[in-house]
């Protein structure tokens, strides 16, 4: 044993560059000064169940005309981070939640945008409103106080607007607007950390996603990097005021949409790049099915009048990224490099652009629209089809996009 130790020491002394390399690697892995993008976090990367890159990309239909790039930008620098778009039972709208914590609605050219609702009494214009900077890191310091409304849904019978807010959970506001009333802020005695999207069942139950039990919205990117699978699909029961866990162990559950007959719902798993189905009724009740593997990272999913589903996708995956996904130890080293995240993302070939895809109930792709050059939108969060037009929201930019369809 002593001879082996001596030989190893002699090897390191004879090859000082090897010794230096080992020291550097050890330093990076330990990240003692928290210089990396994950510095200061209990970063625990795990392997995710993502379909092989080639299998997905080789069979995925492409929009060779890049039709989405022919759309129009609306309300530029008037609204900030409009994640979800809604229209009330009188056809007014759109309504949308902003990065500064407000829910606003469009009242026509003569009036413009007006504040419809807030998610908290803590909100003040001085603290929360930062204009175009609302979608930058300048907002993050106050986001938890001001709120960040994401998913929006109107109950067409009552006119009430239900809200999934990242920090204040599930809320509701009456048709006249005002301060929203909290409905669900915890489940099984623990707080809901990242409410994301919702839909309303015909029986009054509200299904909504809680994206992670470890990270909040400001730190949402670390859910992807780590492969955290602590997300859940929840159900709020209005008569009893209780919240139940429907599914757990999900990797970044995001958008949720009930089918036209409410026999099942679809939800997206952003980290795993897939669209999933959960059966609510019939012989398959309680079971889960894969609907489609996607070329990028899905956000919300929305129903059109025909019962088809629009999925918003931030595209696209890369081969290098797939290698990191399959090897958590590589991620543990790579993201501890003292290099800003935007550069680390570029080094793995990530160049984001928008893809929106239309599916039928069987998971068959009916249409794909792309904006490969990012002319209209580089990051997309939701697609709503209404009266021959697609309304497209984005959580990261200060506009809405529209395009005539079909």
From TrEMBL:
One of its GO terms (cellular component) is vacuole. Coiled coil: none annotated. This is Strictosidine synthase conserved region domain-containing protein. It is found in: Vacuole. It comes from Cinchona calisaya. The keyword Transmembrane applies. Belongs to the strictosidine synthase family. InterPro entries: 6-blade_b-propeller_TolB-like, Strictosidine_synth_cons-reg. Keywords: Glycoprotein, Membrane, Signal, Transmembrane, Transmembrane helix, Vacuole. Gene3D superfamilies: TolB, C-terminal domain. Residues 196-282 form the Strictosidine synthase conserved region domain. The chain crosses the membrane at residues 12-30.
